[in-house]
TrEMBL record:
Lineage: Eukaryota, Metazoa, Chordata, Craniata, Vertebrata
GO biological process: response to metal ion
Source species of the chain: Pygocentrus nattereri (Red-bellied piranha)
Membrane-crossing segments per the record: 25-43
Record bears the keyword 4Fe-4S: no
Protein name as catalogued: CutA divalent cation tolerance homolog
Amino acid sequence: MTDTQENKMDWIYQRCNKDTMSKSRFLLICGTIMLTITLYPVLRMLGVQLHATLSGSYVAGHHSILLINCPTEQVAKDIGRHIMEKRMAACVNILPHTSTMYYWKGEIRDASEILLLVRTRTSLIQRLTEFITAMHPYEIPEIISFPIEDGSLSYLKWMDVAVPEQTNSHHQPLASP
């Protein structure tokens, strides 16, 4: 610590303690409080996951659904197949021809697009976004995610098996749910 920080700690120690605790004990308590505050999000997440494991309940937001608009069915199929081959999604639905209106470069545009619904782990959203953006023909592709709050526990557990936490492209195919 710098001299200024040490002086502040000495001042706090002297103001809070009148011979009731040693300086090392005071620093240990302050360090423990700071460590607990810093690690709170991680400790909370571990507690929720432990509770879910022991009780068999679902952790809301562990999985997400992505909406991705594509210009053609072939582009949607190509993106969907690449996502599935990389094991970054448990399931991809390709919904045919949606009518879309949007602002682009100061004008209202009309288009016919294909909508992909992708079910995945929330932890993979950023990786998926980067992967899709790299292969998508649009300058700014629509990639929007929504957390899954609840659902069929057996389906959600199947999603965990279908999409491993650390993905790679060399996995055996899984049976459908």
